[in-house]
Amino acid sequence: MTILNINQIKKVLPHRYPFLLVDKVTEFESGVYLKAIKNVTVNEPFFQGHFPTQPIMPGVLIIEAMAQATALYGELAIKGGMDDDILYYLVGVDKARFRQTVGPGDQLVLQVNFVTVKRNIWKFSTTAKVDDKLVASAELMTTIADPQS
């Protein structure tokens, strides 16, 4: 099941190729969680240099994919989706761990679990899995701002 497809995601996130790192949202429950997919292909530009003979998705880009998923969660939770008058900013990363590599052909399943919101700082527990195996996890904090300010 698809909650948001790539065209709907592009209405929410300002990112574009090669930095848009979420392909679709498959599950969402407000106040609880969001699940999204990133299909990792051999054509990803970062594989040209990381590493040409053993392509590995950089860990910081896995974190970025999880952060983009938190923005999609926020948009669906607050506005019901597709509103371009606010931006979501990553303001903190805690307890980031990388357990195995991600390469071409992998499907990264991103899960964002809502933890709390205090004074416009949203906290999430996030994971990234490939074939049901945990590849990365982190606690992410985000905030919301008007892009005109």
Structure description:
- The protein is α+β, with helices and mostly antiparallel strands.
- It has one domain: Thiol Ester Dehydrase, Chain A (Roll), CATH 3.10.129.10.
- It contains two helices and six strands; from the N terminus they run H-E-E-H-E-E-E-E.
- It has helices spanning 6-12, 59-79, and strands at residues 24-29, 33-39, 87-98, 107-118, 121-130, 133-145.
- A six-stranded antiparallel beta sheet has the order 1-2-4-5-6-3, with helices on one face.
- Strand 1 (24-29) and strand 2 (33-39) form a beta hairpin.
- The longest helix has 21 residues, at 59-79.
- It is globular.
- The mean pLDDT is 94.
Question: Which short descriptors sum up this protein?
Answer:
6 strands; 40% strand; globular; 2 helices; six-stranded antiparallel beta sheet; 149 residues; Thiol Ester Dehydrase, Chain A; alpha+beta
CATH superfamily: Hotdog Thioesterase
Give the C-level CATH assignment.
Alpha Beta
> Which structural category do the helix and sheet elements fall into?
alpha+beta
- Strand line-up across the major sheet: 1-2-4-5-6-3
Radius of gyration: 15 Å
CATH architecture: Roll
- Report the helical percentage: 10-25%
Number of domains: 1
